[in-house]
Amino acid sequence: MDDDIFLVRFWGVRGSIAVSGPEFARYGGNTICIEMRCGEHTLLFDAGSGLRPAGKALRASGVTDFDLFFTHCHYDHIIGLPAFKPMYERGIKVTLWSGHLAGRMTTRQMVDEFIRPPWFPVTLGVCRASLDCRDFASGDVLRPREGVVVRTGSLTHPGGCIGYRVEWGGRVVAVITDTEHEPGELDQAVLQLIEDADLVIYDCTYTEEEMERYRGNGHSTWQQGVKLCEAAGARGLALFHHDPSRTDDELDGMERLAKDRFAGAFAARDGQTLKFPVSVHKKR
Ligand SMILES: [Zn+2]
Ligand SMILES: [Zn+2]
């Protein structure tokens, strides 16, 4: 049954830093982590604090082979990696991918940098899983698993960031976080990645009203997400990378406004699952 489903599950939707408390209980406080299941294949995007519960649940469901793609390595996108238990388990395969530091640092070097003393008690040497680090450059087309195509592009973010377009079974899901837009312009690289997508997961840290105060931080707005999705013919828009101070009630309000403008818009929350049925013939 699951062979015919492209599943997307949000494990961490919060940007910048994890939060907790009653005012964040419904949308959740974990930082960035998205699971995509293309039939039997499990892909993960970013290793924020949401990666810890993701690892636990996926192991419980019998997954032994993980491909984890980094958009970039700011703390909110990596802090969960040392707590990803499957890495310490014999018999598990973990493939890590990154491209935002191409030519400057390899994926292996990046991970070695922050999983070691004095930042962490041990080094990657304690991992018992088979760990494979892959490097790519923005624009490369990746084929991590049979029939799964992952297109990549550069986003506008301090230090660089990669946007992903995942294609499987005739369905398309794009991860566009973190990125800043120019007022009045549509980013061509983003348009390419989200063209005709079933779902666009977009950096909606700020509102347009707030944006002026935070120019240069490398983030965007739900209003820009709507414009991009309309221009690209995308059908779903997940408001994502919520500001750590944004409460549940505020996110409800933001979701209402976004839905009024674009019917396929919603504010993503931890644990939320979306299922896109695929055509069996289109699985290549
Ligand atoms: Zn971020
Ligand atoms: Zn960032």
Automatic annotation (TrEMBL):
UniProt-listed CDD domains: TaR3-like_MBL-fold
Metallo-beta-lactamase domain sequence ranges: 41-242
Pfam families registered for this protein in UniProt: Lactamase_B_2
PANTHER family per UniProt: ZINC PHOSPHODIESTERASE ELAC PROTEIN 1
Protein name, per record: MBL fold metallo-hydrolase
Origin species: Mesorhizobium opportunistum
